[in-house]
Amino acid sequence: MGFQIIPLPYNDEMDRNTRQRHAIELVFKAADRPLSVQDVLEAGQKILPALGIATVYRAIKGMVDEKWLTPVQIPGENPYYEPAGKTHHHHFRCRQCQKVFELEGCVFDFDKHLPNGFHAEHHDLVIYGRCPICPASVKSTRRAARQH
Amino acid sequence: MGFQIIPLPYNDEMDRNTRQRHAIELVFKAADRPLSVQDVLEAGQKILPALGIATVYRAIKGMVDEKWLTPVQIPGENPYYEPAGKTHHHHFRCRQCQKVFELEGCVFDFDKHLPNGFHAEHHDLVIYGRCPICPASVKSTRRAARQH
DNA sequence: GTAGCTGCAAATTCTTTGCAGTTGT
DNA sequence: ACAACTGCAAAGAATTTGCAGCTAC
Prior knowledge:
Chain A is α+β, with helices and mostly antiparallel strands. Chain A is 24% helix and 22% strand.
């Protein structure tokens, strides 16, 4: 017998366009910031009240495998997710309102700052502080990161 | 590549100097990189075989409260801990050997790069790549997180 | 019709906590 | 002596998985 073609490790889950996955897709499309699993569950249940948490986990995992979503990991917290395909960016976490904002652009060139022998392939950066909405003072809210 | 062991700020806030806390202290002093709870448990059990996981969690938590240890959060992974009191620094995670290294110094001034209205107070940075010990060719295995 | 998806509940993994016994001071 | 500490086991919290029924195609 000959060789067999082994299916690509590429994941094409979400074979079906079910109500629940469509609802979850809508939730992400309507969101203006990264969402937690609970955020997705709650928003999704407004569309489909019977939506279960396991389905949300499975759908999100499938969408991440398909590169439709990207996880946003804030150290010490449960993951958030946001639609993929955006340009390289980082996140800002407001210590007052606890919301996570996206920061466009990346001004860093890490390779040149690493010790000899280290090679940088990727990086994650989270900046913590105070956002324009929660000011202890400041208010000049020019356009900035996608908020909320 | 290596790390230096920076002298720890001495701290006597622990109510008692028990064998198990002393063992855990030794483990951290002997470590040349941030350690996970499991790392500490395993190393500690070489000194005190009966050492329990709950004790490790409690001791680490106490040492963090006392500012004797600092948590090192790598997105998507369980926390590591390292002796506190070092200068501001970041971490490098080798995608091959999975080890976490310390990178001294931080040349970035993030406040300058934030949109108007945002104020940076703190930041976390993790650089991913290949460390000097690991050969360039080896392919990294599937998501090696969840080790222990 | 049927493979894939869903909800539920049970299982996993990591961490915390209650408790009775132990130990440092 | 006695409060703090410890190990164990049970409890929590977040996520995954097994399974019988449902549903998109």
